[in-house]
Amino acid sequence: MTSLHTDAVRALTDWQPDEDGQQELRRDYLAHLAAHPDGLWRACLPGHITASALVVDPAEGRVLLTLHPKVGRWLQMGGHCEPGDGTLAAAALREAVEESGIAGLELLAVDGRTAPVKLDRHHVRCLGKDKPENIHLDVQYVAVAPAGARELISEESLDLRWFGWEQLPADTDHSVRDLVTRARALV
Fold first, then answer.
1. Domain span including residue 38
2. Which pTM was predicted?
C-alpha cells in the first residue's frame, strides 16, 4: 500500500460527518480501500477514489466552477489522484490549482485541521464516451481563494466562471448545490 492509501484511510476514519447518508458513504469508501490496495487509481474498476475542491471567495460571496468538457456541466475542480500526491487533501488542492489557475489556494481547515466537507458517489465515463461507466468515490474539500484571485482557464475546462452563492447556473446538479451550501456555512 502507498502512503496516499494510508492517508486516505486515515482522513476518512478521522472525519466524522453528522449525517447518516454521509456516514454510510464514508463506510463504503473505507470498505473500498480495504478491499482495493489500488483503490485510489483510475485503473481500479469499476470504481476509484477521486479528490475535488470547491474554490470559494468568501469576501466576495462567490464560488468558482468549471464547465467540465466531458460532463458538460458546471462542477467544482477535481479529478484523479496521481502518484506524486502525498495526501488526499494534496490531490484535491493540486486539482484545484491546476484547473483554476489560481496560485495561493488554501484548503479550508475544519475544527483546526484539513478535512473533507462532503463525499459524493457518481457514475462517469472517465475512460472515454465509448467505454463503460465507472464509479467515482469523490472526497470533496473547500479551497479558499486569496483576495483578488484571478482564474485562468486550463485545457481541462471549457470555461471557468465565478457565481454568487445564490446565483448558480440553473442546470447545476444537486450534489454541487449541496457542496456550495456546506461551504458557505463553513466560511
1. 3-186
2. 0.94
